[in-house]
Structure formats: structure tokens, C-alpha cells
Amino acid sequence: MRTILKHFIINTVSLYLASLVISGIIFAEGTYSILLAGVVLTLTTIIIKPIINILLLPINLITFGFFRWAGFTVSLYLVTLIVPGFKLMDFAFKGFSSYWFSIPPITIAGILAFIAYSFFISIVASALYWIFK
């Protein structure tokens, strides 16, 4: 139960942080949508993602794990289907500029947007898992 709660908190916080950085993640009903999306993402990550990873195991073995992102992308797509107040629009990164480097603004649409969202959210979640070991 404790690990499920940890997954829920990290998934919810990573969704929220991603929505702050990337314009295109919409929580129509506010906090309720964020919490419901976190619950559904946690359940799909625990239940559906291992099934997708097993189905894609031959491709993962051939590509040395390059297609591990596909399980999280399917989970994120299921969250958008199940949670009515959670929408993913076009992936629109506003860009980032600092003294040392600059990342230009990027806009991606369609299935590539889901892949980009899942990549970004999984990076944030991995960082949070690393922090809260």
C-alpha cells in the first residue's frame, strides 16, 4: 500500500510539474482532474504498462530497451480516454534560455505529442523517484 501511495504522489506531482513547464496539458476541473489523472496513471502504470512491456519484449531486446517508452505512452493515452477533465493538446515547449545554453521553442502534434509528453513526464517522474528513494 505504501508503494502504491508513493507511485500516486510521484505520478501526480510529475503531471502537475509537466503542466507548469509545457503548455498543452489541460486539467479542466482543477485539482480534482489532477488527482483523478494521478490515480488513473498510477493504476495504468502498475497494471497496463507491464503487459505492454511484455508484448513489446522482443522489440525491446532487439533495440536494447529503446521501446520502453511505448508502455508509458499507452498508459498516458488511456488516462486521456478515462479522465474527462484531462486533455493533452499539441506538445508546445516554450523554450529555455540560460547563460550557458538555449533550447528553442518546439511544437509537436498528433501521436508524436503523446510520445513527447510521455518522455517528459517519465523524466520528471524518474527524477522524483531518485530524490525520494
From TrEMBL:
Pfam families: Phage_holin_4_2
Transmembrane regions listed in the UniProt entry: 7-28, 34-59, 66-86, 106-132
Record key words, sorted: Membrane, Transmembrane, Transmembrane helix
Signal sequence interval, chain numbering: none
InterPro entries according to UniProt: Phage_holin_4_2
Name this polypeptide is given: Phage holin family protein
Organism per entry: Candidatus Woesebacteria bacterium RIFOXYD1_FULL_43_18
